[in-house]
């Protein structure tokens, strides 16, 4: 077994490990062209992050992600008038539930198995959201983790330093023994602030407002998929 000073990996979940875009686009009315469904899905996701950021800045406690997604959808729909007649009010709950069933990106399962089996590392989900959401997503994606840490469970949103520190305390590891893998620069910046190692994975579905030229130089690693993640972690 390979040895590394890293003992565990925290994974952000949606976007990082999971292809949320496919599930959400499929849930939207098929009468709308796929390109338009994609635009709405991407904007829905983008504004969800803005909403969470505002709640974090206001010091508010984590909200059920289903509630947040529903409110953000109502705010987004006026910008997409072609959807108004196609989405009935009583169908919105089904759209929210689409976020609870997502496939993993193709290479993720193999990478996580390698981290556990070849490197002997523990692997954890560390993501904003609810425990119910994470349980549903592990089932739909087929991914397996040692533990699921949600903002609901920890009582605080990322990127608050407390979110990372609470998880570290629970697994009894030091910051330098843990690497966070995420497709969101704000998340990795929060992890950096408490001393975690950081690996950024670029996903086309996320961080649409970030300058990738800058992001490439900010963290301990930058990857386009997880195929080489175990090799990168052994070098941290």
UniProtKB/TrEMBL annotation:
Keywords: Hydrolase. InterPro entries: HAD-like_sf (IPR036412), HAD-SF_hydro_IA (IPR006439), HAD_sf (IPR023214), PGP-like_dom2 (IPR023198), S-2-haloacid_dehalogenase (IPR051540). It comes from the Eukaryota. Pfam families: Hydrolase. This is Haloacid dehalogenase, type II. The lineage of its organism: Eukaryota, Fungi, Dikarya, Ascomycota, Pezizomycotina. One of its GO terms (molecular function) is phosphatase activity. The keyword Chloroplast does not apply.
């Amino acid at each position: 077994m390979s040895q590394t000073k890293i003992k565990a990996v925290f994974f952000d979940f949606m976007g990082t490990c999971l292809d949320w875009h496919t599930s959400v686009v499929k849930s939207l009315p098929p009468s709308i062209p796929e390109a338009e469904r994609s635009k709405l899905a991407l904007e829905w996701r983008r504004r969800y992050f803005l909403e969470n950021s505002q709640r974090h800045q206001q010091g508010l406690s984590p909200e059920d992600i289903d509630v947040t997604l529903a409110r953000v959808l109502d705010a987004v729909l006026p910008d997409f008038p072609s959807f108004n007649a196609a989405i009935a009010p009583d169908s919105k709950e089904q759209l929210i539930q689409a976020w609870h069933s997502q496939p993993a990106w193709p290479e993720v399962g193999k990478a996580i198995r390698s981290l556990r089996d070849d490197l002997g590392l523990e692997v954890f989900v560390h993501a904003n959201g609810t425990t119910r959401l994470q349980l549903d997503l592990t089932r739909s994606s087929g991914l397996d983790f040692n533990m699921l840490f949600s903002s609901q469970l920890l009582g605080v949103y990322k990127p608050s330093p407390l979110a990372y520190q609470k998880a570290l305390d629970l697994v009894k590891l030091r910051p330098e023994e843990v690497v966070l893998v995420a497709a969101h620069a704000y998340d990795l910046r929060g992890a950096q602030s408490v001393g975690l190692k950081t690996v950024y994975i670029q996903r086309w579905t996320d961080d649409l407002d970030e300058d990738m030229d800058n992001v490439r130089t900010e963290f301990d690693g930058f990857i386009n998929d997880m195929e080489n993640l175990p090799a990168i972690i052994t070098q941290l």
